[in-house]
């Protein structure tokens, strides 16, 4: 199923989609709320209808992958497929984007190369069509996006980051990149740009979701045409940082927004979701921590593991078996964090459980029921099938969260759309919320140009 395109929906259709999503999520909330490590302790398989058990019991991992990617549940989820089918920029070299020059690739991993180029180019187009005078990159980290927008695309950029260490690193990388570009200018004087290069302006500041940040709204310089017109952007703005950007959008200084959110489980509860009056009033719209956490999974990456029948899939079963042993020894100890066990899928289930017991401070020599462990390992495919079910429904949760944000913008009389901007195989959180004070009309199509 291709999924839902936001641009094809009217305001009323968006509200109806929110109604449909809350109804479906209410039906299957028990699956989404489940923790796979409790597969045996809570008899999760037994909670499924008998007809589901029969259907899932005979499916191989590759068949589960097809179920994940082509299920009818996706008919209610926003499409995550961008206009390009593969990240063509990595066809020649999987570690170097052919669409970024070498100076902008330095210190940047392939995933980030893809993200800063795609979002940076969209921000440039959005800035042009909305006549913005300055871009504010909130939660800028080491400044990779800010550098590309300022030194690569010629935008005036203010970068705001709460971590002083990251800002110091960003300023160091700014100087390093500027020196590299200047050396390139000396080797090729004819290619020197007319206007001087401008590095991002970095500010150390924590942006709170509950109060306006004056620094965020201050222009770098006074515009000769009058007041500043700001474009706010955030690349994988974590948790409440996304909420802060959405709330600042209503300020008169802000003309446009390009936001890619992530880490929905870190949203304040209440406060971070729901934001719109419409979703807040819907029965069943509440989303627990577990549901919001599940919405952050890398669906396509897991489907690939299923297709390959990766031996690491059995780790789900091993961890669930470990949970039964932990509770057998200490019933009050539930869902403890377990330090990763290297190459867990290559060892026997008993070895895994004993190492896991040690990692949570229990005696690794506790007596174990070998027959029970064997019976649990025999259900490995069921564990994987149940986990696949939760991933199948998880995009509906993300869709409801993002739909709530779209409706929040529209309830204020503004305009908002959602675009799949990154390859989901590279960057699972790949939907960018674009908001403007004035309708873009046909100009919006400029933002959707595909990769070559």
UniProtKB/TrEMBL annotation:
<dbReference type="GO" id="GO:0000179">
    <property type="term" value="F:rRNA (adenine-N6,N6-)-dimethyltransferase activity"/>
</dbReference>
<dbReference type="Pfam" id="PF13679">
    <property type="entry name" value="Methyltransf_32"/>
</dbReference>
<dbReference type="InterPro" id="IPR025714">
    <property type="entry name" value="Methyltranfer_dom"/>
</dbReference>
<dbReference type="InterPro" id="IPR052220">
    <property type="entry name" value="METTL25"/>
</dbReference>
<dbReference type="InterPro" id="IPR029063">
    <property type="entry name" value="SAM-dependent_MTases_sf"/>
</dbReference>
<dbReference type="InterPro" id="IPR020596">
    <property type="entry name" value="rRNA_Ade_Mease_Trfase_CS"/>
</dbReference>
<keyword id="KW-0808">Transferase</keyword>
<keyword id="KW-0489">Methyltransferase</keyword>
<protein>
    <submittedName>
        <fullName>Ribosomal RNA adenine dimethylase domain containing 1</fullName>
    </submittedName>
</protein>
<feature type="domain" description="Methyltransferase">
    <location>
        <begin position="111"/>
        <end position="268"/>
    </location>
</feature>
